[in-house]
Amino acid sequence: MKNDSKLKIGAVSMKSLPGDPEENVKNTISWIKKAKEQEIELLLFPELNITGYWNSRELISAAEPIGGDSIKHLIDEIVKIGGIFVAVGLAEEYSNSIFNTHILIGTEGIIGYYRKTHSPFPENFTWGVGNHFPVFTIGGFKVGIAICYDNSFPEVYRCYATQGCDIILSPYAFGFTPFKTGVKNAEEKAIKDWKRSVSIDLQSAARANVVYSIACVGAGHIKDYRVEKGEQWSTRVSLDDLGPMEYFLSGGVLIFGPDGKLIAESPNDKIDEYLISTIITRKELNKVRSFVYNTLKDRRPEIYSHLVKRP
């Protein structure tokens, strides 16, 4: 592998409307064009940015197969734009289930996809889960994907690292309800809460596995889209006395280097759509990986057999 390899990588805290893939695809394309203007070569979008994040089986009405209309439209636009790879989130319809899936797309079409492998309890009744950790090669770098809750499991990064991954893409959805809590400076608190929570997992994971880690979360006020359209839920989803589901996604981008240090981040003061980028290099990866203390290189897997047993 050439020591002078470089890749400009970015992430965007895009706002998505649940159940409105057509509008979300338009917004996605506009951000791809902006990223191309900045010569970004690989662009990460938040969890479920195409269909929107919604923790209810009602979202199945907006779910699509991987090769559905939304992805076809994106591929057509990427072919026109040229010279960029994007990772987008989709509520994937497959075999009478829906999966929380992130799809890697380039000018040649679909490169591959990753299905979220770990579900927190609130999602267990909505989503199917994947069972694989596929690795893709972009610009001479090996890339893996871990969606939101997946990043809370050290085993996920280690599975990728042992396959030679250089970069882990970590899209999130992180909601909060400031109108319920009455917290002062709620936007700033929400952003910092997300960054603090994510940093605990990703900073140590990047350092322990000597990989770049790129994370982003959607941004903005999300309301019950069916009520907005004058429709009703077949089964109404409520948050205590709030009535129809309503929340904010905190917005934000974080990029960590292979030494675990923060390279770049979005602002803390306002929930908004931000595009943040950095240039990653093979030289920096090799420099960190050649350090005398390397927890990936110094592993002793022959004594870790108990890790595959449930507690």
Could you explain how this protein is built, in words?
This protein has 311 residues and is α/β, with parallel strands linked by helices. The protein has a single domain, classed as Nitrilase/N-carbamoyl-D-aminoacid amidohydrolase (4-Layer Sandwich). The chain is 25% helix and 28% strand. The protein contains 7 helices and 13 strands. Strands 6, 7, 8, 9, 10, 11 and 12 form a 7-stranded mixed β-sheet that branches. A hairpin with a 2-residue loop joins β4 (97-106) and β5. The longest helix is centred in the middle third of the chain and has 24 residues, at 186-209. The chain starts with 5 loop residues before the first strand and ends in a 22-residue tail after the last helix.
